[in-house]
UniProtKB/TrEMBL annotation:
Belongs to the 4-toluene sulfonate uptake permease (TSUP) (TC 2.A.102) family. The lineage of its organism: Bacteria, Bacillati, Cyanobacteriota, Cyanophyceae, Nostocales. PANTHER family: MEMBRANE TRANSPORTER PROTEIN YFCA-RELATED, TRANSMEMBRANE PROTEIN YFCA. It comes from the Bacteria. It is a multi-pass membrane protein. One of its GO terms (cellular component) is plasma membrane. It is found in: Cell membrane. This is Probable membrane transporter protein.
Length: 201
């Protein structure tokens, strides 16, 4: 939520569309969180490395992919993808985020990039705000189920909020190309980690 506040000026989207995406994220995050309460995470741990790899590759090669799609679509239409596509994609990502969450940022960045949002700071604004919606709503089912260790959770919340705001604040002043390269490096590192050690944890 703190990083979303730092990126608030980069949310370059009409309020109506932003509200729709926010509601979509809340619904999806709630659904995923409830599913997690009744489902073992073992199967998801097995799928996670492949999901991370797919999202990382999509984000890394999103520009040539988008150029190819635009070239292919010139014969029919040159319009940007409709809001409905973004809503459906965000709903699926939100359910995933509420259910497990690892790699959520990569998936959101990959989807936003693939759907035509180029500026990395605008993408970060979207993923921070919508990610806050997902994580915010996902906590409620666990609260009602009494599964939260509050002392540890409060410490993590304070540290995460402070770090999120500071990182977002300084990242906005960096060259977008540098930030994009950094995200790609971290994404591949995370993917490699889960492929090698993920199943043993």
């Amino acid at each position: 939520m703190a990083s979303a506040g730092a990126y608030r000026y980069n949310l370059l989207i009409p309020r109506r569309q932003l509200l729709i995406l926010c509601v979509t994220s809340l619904i999806g995050g709630g659904i995923g969180s409830v599913i997690l309460l009744y489902t073992s995470a073992d199967m998801f741990k097995q799928l996670l490395p492949y999901l991370l790899l797919s999202a990382t590759l999509i984000f890394t090669f999103s520009e040539p992919l988008k150029m190819w799609l635009q070239f292919q679509s010139k014969k029919s239409s040159s319009e940007s993808p409709p809001l409905l596509i973004l809503v459906i994609a965000q709903l699926a990502i939100s359910i995933y985020g509420g259910f497990f969450g690892a790699g959520l940022v990569i998936l959101m960045l990959a989807t936003l990039s693939f759907l035509g949002i180029k500026n990395i700071h605008t993408m970060n604004a979207f993923k921070s705000f919508l990610g806050s919606c997902i994580n915010g709503i996902a906590i409620f089912p666990f609260m009602f189920a009494g599964l939260i260790a509050w002392h540890q959770a409060i410490l993590m919340a304070v540290g995460g909020s402070l770090g999120g705001y500071l990182c977002a604040h300084y990242a906005r002043n960096l060259d977008p190309r540098f930030v994009r390269i950094f995200v790609i490096v971290v994404s591949f590192s995370m993917t490699t980690y889960f492929f090698i050690w993920g199943e043993n944890r």
